[in-house]
Amino acid sequence: MNLNIAILIILIMAALWTTMTRSLLRSAIGLAAMSLVLSIIMFRLNSNLAAVFELSVCAGLIPVLFVSTISLTHPLTKQEVMQHMKDRIRRFWYLPFIIVAVGIALSLVTVKLSIKLPPHEIEKNVRTLLWNERPLYLAGQIIVLLIGAFSVVILFKESGKDER
Amino acid sequence: MLALFITVPFFSILFFNLPFLSYFRRAITAWAYVLFCAQIALALRLFSPDFLNIFTARVFFNFNIALDNLSLIILLSSAIVLFITLVIATYMIDSERKRFNFVNLLLFTQAGLNGLCLARDMFSLYIFLEIVAITSYILIVFDKDIKALSAAFKYVILSTVASVLLVASIALILLLSGDTQFSVIHNAISAQTPNLLIMFSVALFVCATFIKAGVVPFHGWLPEVYSHSPAAVSVLFAGIISKALGIYTLMRIVNDVFGPNIHVNSALLFIGMVSIVIGALAALVQKDFKKMLGFSSVSQIGYIILGIGSGSALGFAGAAFHIFNHAIFKSLLFVNSAAIESRTRTTHMHELGGLSKVMPITGLTSVFAFVSAAGLPPLAGFWSKLLIVMALILSGHPVYAILAIVLSALTLAYLLSMQRLVFFGKLNERFSKIKEAEFGFSLAAIILAAIIIVTGLLYPFVLGKFILPLASSGVFK
To answer: For residue A115, is it within any domain?
Structure first.
């Protein structure tokens, strides 16, 4: 139980790092770290398949896409970054208080649910699950990845060419 | 063979982007025209049950997909709107490289929309919904205009919230049913007494679809996206994207998974009515043509929601019919706004006036769109609104029916005001020398106006062949 709480705290810290850091590159690395912690949680919850996907796609492939996109952008100057930080703090200072208040409120509420869960399914191997039952889902995922790569080319590569 | 609807656009993108086939890239626009026309023809043919049975045989791909009249209406509407978008884009995008990229994005949209229509499990539905959403983010900022970027950012944030709600709802449903297939979930939910968790997952799903559709109170992104996107993208968005992502998904889930529920229906009726009122009142005070059309969409979506909320087969059919009609008349209005913008460089209605004297085709086709949108007989929009009102009366909601009729006056008011400010009255001297819009705009407008007229005049045939079979499918069987 204590280990779970420790992992969750690390997850929250990684999330805060991702959203609060000044550099986009560090933010992308923070996102990868967050996915890594999330995949540990999934492993601990016996969702090995989901954990492997989270680790390979969200902690591996997506940060690579982000980093390659960021490398095509112009970084802000230090002054601009500081100004951006100040603006953000001025606009959103109250958000942490709201999150803490909601967290406390939720911890006080206990909802009892009378749910009839389905019988535990027989575990299927990866091959059956991915290729025999969810080929459409996989095809969709491939299209999403392609659109991501295509979008980067359209939005960033072209602007580089135009500027030259 | 149904998988062809997804695989053909997808493999077309792969083919035209192969590095050693760059010579063929110029042909992508012509190929896209062929694909969109083929989809229109195929969708119309598939309304015949015999052909549908032959076509749904599984070849090559073992996808869990199916086709019914609701899917066919969206397939047909999306193909028409994509075709019109391509016509406009061909005239508005000068650079060959940019046009190539744009057509690629349209093909991605086609694959996504088709997958959305055919999917019969929650995860696949969600994935194809995201395909269309991600493509649409890129389409909005295609011209890299700062206002479009701002509008897209707002849309991305709200759309992401909707996606989180969808995933949360799917996760809860998975917990309750142990599967993501529509039929399995429907049986699992029917087997248990309604509880808090089921209601919560339904509420999350409905809220997500409302955000995607731009229904009040989640409509903040819609007018901005419509008014700041490139003209061709506005047509695509107003015509099909928001309707398919939001309304179709809601209808599919109500029809195949959750079934009509008295609490959900009451909420839908209330929100539909609020959407009609807020959208129409906001449209009435707009000065920008495209923004006014954006708020008009919010109002028209309200009518579709009313149809679904009636909880009857007739209302459901009326809602599907109004999706089709809205796709056509709103696309026409946006095509005309693009034509006006291309000639006058403004969409501010008070700067315009008397344009039907110099742009007669744009002015005339706009009248057809306006009559259909206002729900005046005998054009298509009247019949779908009539079905919705009849469904409301027959399902025991006469107050909503009366309000829907009364509020049509508001629709009439803002559309009349638009017609008067833009097309009638004295011609602004600045625009005395402008000519009718380019051939592509006129062609698109004429095609859409013809569809409105033919659908309206052949209403008995349309009702019997396309709409009423829809009322006897799914939970309304």
So the answer is: no
ipTM greater than 0.95, yes or no?
no
Total structural domains in chain B?
1
Q: Which residue has the tokens 């062949």?
A: B465
Question: What is the Cα Rg of chain B in Å?
Answer: 21
Encode chain B (477 residues) as per-residue pLDDT tens digits: 778 888 899 989 888 888 777 777 788 889 999 999 999 998 888 887 777 777 766 666 667 778 888 888 999 999 999 999 999 998 888 888 888 999 999 999 999 999 999 888 888 899 999 999 999 999 998 888 888 888 888 899 899 999 999 989 988 888 777 777 888 888 888 877 777 788 888 889 999 999 998 888 888 888 888 888 888 899 998 888 988 888 999 988 888 888 777 888 888 899 999 999 999 999 988 888 888 888 999 999 999 999 999 888 888 889 999 999 999 999 999 999 988 888 888 888 888 878 888 888 988 999 999 889 888 888 888 999 999 999 999 988 899 999 989 888 888 888 888 888 888 878 878 777 888 888 888 999 999 999 999 999 988 888 888 887 776 665 454
Asked if residue A87 is part of any domain, the answer here is yes
Domain that holds residue B448: 261-477
The size of the A-B interface in CB pairs under 8 A is 92
Residue B30 and residue B129 in contact, taking contact as beta carbons nearer than 8 Å: no
Is the CB of residue B180 less than 8 Å from the CB of residue B168? no
B residues 94-133 closer than 8 Å to A (CB): 97-98, 101, 104-105, 108, 111-112, 115, 119, 121, 123-124, 127-128, 130-131
Q: Of A119, A141, A153, which has the smallest distance from its Cβ to B127's Cβ? A: A141
Residues in chain A with CB shorter than 8 Å from the CB of B2 are none
Q: State whether A113 and B101 contact (CB < 8 Å).
A: no
User: Structure pTM?
Assistant: 0.85
Answer yes or no: is B315 within a domain: yes
> Nearest residue of A to residue B200 by CA position?
A113
* Cβ contact B380:B254 at 8 Å: no
Neighbours of B446 (CB within 10 A): 16
> Quick check: B128 and A132 CB within 8 A?
no
